[in-house]
Amino acid sequence: MSEHIVSPKVYIVIFLALMVGTTATVWAAYQNFGQFNIVIALAIATFKATLVVLYFMHARYSPKRTQLVIVCSVFWLAIMLAMTLTDYDTRTPRDSRLAPPAISHLFRA
Amino acid sequence: MSTTPPLPGHQMPHEDYLNATYGIRSWLLTTDHKRIALLYLGSVTVFFFIGGLLATMIRIHLLTPTGYLVTPETYNKLFTMHGVAMIFFFLIPSIPAVLGNFLIPLMIGAKDLAFPKINLLSWYIYLVGGSFVLYSFATGGLDTGWTFYTPLSSIYSNSAVTPAVIGIFINGFSSILTGLNFIVTIHTMRAPGMTWFRLPLFVWAHYATSLVMILGTPVIAITLLLAGLERMFHLGFFNPALGGDPILFQHLFWFYSHPAVYIMILPAMGVISEIIPTFARKPIFGYSFIAGSSIAIAVIGFLVWAHHMFVTGESVYAALTFSFLSYLVAIPSAVKVFNWTSTLYKGSISWDTPMIYAFGFIGLFLIGGLTGLFLACLGLDIHIHDTYFVVAHFHYIMVGGAVMGYVGGLHFWWPKITGRLYPEALARIAAVTLFVGFNLTFFPQFILGYLGMPRRYHTYPPEFQVLNVLSTAGASILALGYLLPMLYLTWSMRYGKVAGQNPWPATGLEWKTDSPPPTENFDVTPEVTWEPYDFQNRPDLGLTAGAPSLAPAHGDD
Amino acid sequence: MHRTGELYGHFETLEQQKETATLGMWVFLVTEVLFFGGLFMTYTINRHAFSTAFGVGSNTLDLTLGGGNTVVLILSSLTMAMAVWSAQVGKVGWFGIFGKVRWVSIFLIATLVLGTVFLGVKVVEYKQKFDHHLVPGRGFDIRYRSEHPTASDNPKEIAAEKEELEKAFAKDPDINAHAQLYFSLYFGMTGLHALHMIVGAGLLLWLIKGSFAGRFTPQYNTPVEVVGLYWHFVDIVWIYLFPLLYLIDRHQ
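Above: the input entities. Below: the structure tokens describing the complete assembly.
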């Protein structure tokens, strides 16, 4: 059987990298980067997720077929997000949201 | 078990998947894909009858402009429950879970699907989901339309929405597991020599279908879960009164439900791609284009969903994009139709029952597909949105296309499934009846819709009565067209002529084993050395260039 | 479907069986990505529309508990990966009074313990939300905590929260409704994640039982690997949930 055995050293290095990523994301959240806060947070999360997929889940050592499956999942998620946002991002401010009626009086405020 | 030896001169029947084991337990706990296919066959037929009964009531109600049969509220429930039963519990599982389940392992030379227990589990999940939906039908019904648009479904409807939503949520996992099983099976279980481009086009079509199942179904599951939670706990995801956005529900809903149309039609296209070369005695024209167009339909199908929402208040720019992308689906669909017709060219065509269904499919799918282009057109859709034009369009695709393919496929593989031939003359009459009845039912609806009759209304202006009466008359012929096959197919299971391995003869691997096949499908793992749909170089089937052509065997010869 | 040792009858070789199982799990994870994807879509649209309310809601979450849980979960991923490794190499060691034990059992138990700790912390966090009237419904009141501080609350923190809420109400008078959307999503997303954790814990129990029976060897360890894939996926979901739910508006 030609399976690739990843050594524990690699696992520990990846774990430490994930810890650094977690610290970085908390640190970044306390800085004011304006609208880039969400971008940075998602970039770090994606970096961490990639590490997990590549090493903990052995995607780096998997057959091409498995890698294709992973790419497909990300691609279809992107289709869903991007194509839906084509609607929300191109609405004029007037119809960007069906104006909700004033309802604050319904709740204890 | 007694081991009494058979009397001398007495022949034991050949052992196959039907008689290998006995008793109700051996069916309910089976992991044999062929038996599970038959379990599915039974259960989807039940839902087909329920849906058909509801459709009958709708058509009777619409005989008169004022509608005598039911109250307006009940009418809303009739068309909703008809849609839910037919779409989620008949059309989506019909071809994949019955024919696909039965045939994919046989066609690729495997002993079973990759995950036999999960296959059985998916049938039980289907039953549980179905029970929830039937419970909802029985305790108040459902009046939201099969689309469950919020906030009607989550706030205002007084019908039994919650159990229905739970039922469809559960049923989604049955579909996911079937798709997962097919994809993995096609990847890892192919027999030696069965390369990707030797796969039958039926298998390619099911691969594409499974892609849609696993990529789309989870989204409808989470969407209905959110809508259900919203109804149960008064949350506000999709409720504008609480700040939510109902259009978001429609985006998520159609992200699955548009591709779901391809779950219904793609397998039917696979069936047609098997029938046409067999009864034209010619290799299929443009194999790789038909295979590729299945995948293309599955992928492009995910880029067009918001054409269902042109009148909802989505952005005009998005609507334009989706309108344009919707036209793209026409390309791979047309590739298929052209290739089927090219296959017929100079073929030696015989008008056997499955072939009549295949011709019916091509014609009806053509009309259904081309009217789809009308609806994809942003400007025109504003005019005919939510009219009977839409109803006629999708019935041409789903009934004219998917159900024709399903019934045609049942006839084509019936000898393999049961080992018996059906009475050919009767079957041809039934096929023509179905075709005539279908057109009489739904063609008038195109005209009605174009003249402006809205769908989902329980009354209509008197000037529409003639066309509605025509439609109802057609529906009764259509009903006859469905009942006939049901009767003679059942009859043939016991009294039909024995079919033999390969009655047509066709070239697929499934025809190289016994009819009905043994539990393990093949006595020895087959090795594939031939190209698909080759009617000239198959000495193993008695098909060689110059040899006298073999006529199909018929049940009433 | 008969079975010879670990090989099911419809497969030709163990390798084919392993490939099939792994591919099956990956395809299942694709469906999970799209399943959570629908939730993330809902989150995106609502956060975009009600950024103030989402910021206020996010700031009521306990960052220490959330961050700690992130560490716990990533650590559990490490132990899960180590469990797969120990099964692959078949490592056996002496563990004091327990005598000779397979390492795979040890790592699986460690993973289960860490997963349980995560769920326990989640329970504590949920309880806080109930105490502070932050569960969507009639009783929901985003101001409840700042108006009803308990003895254990830091007065400075309460004052800061009051000020933040005042500003938020000035920006978005319907914030009480819109913050409910945030908390609906918070409970929806973390709840679904927790449900996956519970399923994962069940699978771990099944693996632990098998590992003590000596089922997993260098030749046959597919179940450990497949459950490992699932566990890591659940970890990835949390890697996204943590910044999206806890860290929306911390810099103010």
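Note for the figure: Chain C touches chain B through 37 residues (CB under 8 Å).
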